[in-house]
Design goal:
alpha+beta, Butyryl-Coa Dehydrogenase, subunit A, domain 1, Butyryl-CoA Dehydrogenase, subunit A, domain 2, 3 domains, seven-stranded mixed β-sheet, two-stranded antiparallel ribbon, 16 helices, 13% strand, globular
Amino acid sequence: MSNYHPPIDDMQFLLHDVLGFKNEDLDRDTCEAIFGEAAKLASEVLVPLNAIGDHNGAQLNGDVVSTAPGWQDAYAQYRDGGWNAVPFTEEYGGQGLPYALAFPIQEMWQGANMSFGLCPLLNHGAVEAIHHHGSDEQKDEYLPKLISGEWTGTMNLTEAGAGSDLGLVRTKAEADGNAYKITGQKIFITYGEHDLAENIIHLVLARLPGAPEDVKGISLFIVPKILSNGTRNAVKCIGLEDKLGIHASPTCTMDFDGATGYLVGEAHQGLKYMFTMMNNARLSVGLQGVAIAEASYQHALAYARERTQGKDYASGQRVTIDGHPDVRRMLLTMKSQIEAGRALTYAAALALDAKDAAKVEILTPLVKSWCTDMAVEVASLGVQVHGGMGFVEETGAAQYFRDARILPIYEGTNGIQALDLAFRKTLRDGGQAVKAFIENLRNDGGEALGEYCDALIETTNVLLEAGGQKDLDKVEAMAGPYLRGFALIAGGALLQKSLSMLEGRPDEFSVEKRRTIEFFMANILPHAKAYLQAARHGCSFTTL
């Protein structure tokens, strides 16, 4: 059984004390009450279903997908509690709460049960895409029920011959009166079919006849499972993937056999529209990384506190394994990186609320890539803390590792995130926005981060020089380690800022947090210099 309990004290400290969240309608006590109610659903309803879902999975019978036992009731409680509507506009039935609250709440669902949390995550992206690019009629028809959670939404990009290279998409759309007929297959569609909601609204990338080649010829269509006249559309699930993890989340192969679809916005603008959905999802996936890492850490910590093994060198007495320095090192490695990732992710939430586009653009690849790589490392350490029992499914430690492994892959692999940071976010404006961001990190981190920010600026200049010389292979080779070093420094700056908020506070929470931050600064942050050195000097290779 999972030991996950939403870390509300950490969430509150980060939002109110470190990041300076201010809202006249949402003071600290109000946030505490909202988080407390969400935590009840997470810990009392979703956590007990996590292992059940892992063991039973989703099942395909014909073209009907049945979710795991307990899923339907849990989703009904989630929907009826109004949780799906938290961040959305009140115009269409949302609660209009800021992302600063929506992210911690979403973290609870993902930490409690990531397979469950994937359904509302994808639905959120569908709402964003329709809200920003749909017609007034489409908004009126689809948004109220997507926001309430009565309906759910999906994102249909990937095809068997077109993974991340969407220029190879071959699904067709042909005009049919006021609508279109959509023909083709999509793979890896999360919650493409299920029994939680009465309708599923698919957002599908497809090509019109005579469309330009490559990504310039892609259009976006709304394809409902159930049409407005109550009839079943010609779209169905024809297969479920047998996956390493997230077993209870149905990953579907969807067949569109002349299904009725409705064009979103203008023709041939589908990729641009889909990125509204994609960019939102990338931050949410980074948040998933923080959440599942937290769950794995709590699970490992509970085991370490009760597992007696070995003796204390000084006393000669047998001790629980949390008394061994190497186990404490692993636990602090887990905890300190989680706190850095949470700080980065919540900073992105506040930037979204403030409509600080430049900050959101830079934070998105950092959050998505580093937080998800971190989740895999942390979940692997969680297995290690359990020793041999971690490799046995009975303890539950392995599920976190298996579930976490998808996170660096989907919504654009982490290599793609690194390229985004290097090319779009750094080279595009000659590094102006990135350098301004780094100077803000210097202000947050103070003297302790000065040499790291200097190294980051130096590496940024090397990258800019390579771009200016059109040595784009070098830029691409630099991108991965550049992002990793950047993210560690960004997380470290926010943790150092957190440290300044703890001065003079003797309570147990503050003492523990100071210890965690000091561990990060001494043991984790120094890796940033190695990554940046690798980016500057280790990128010259021509063959394998």
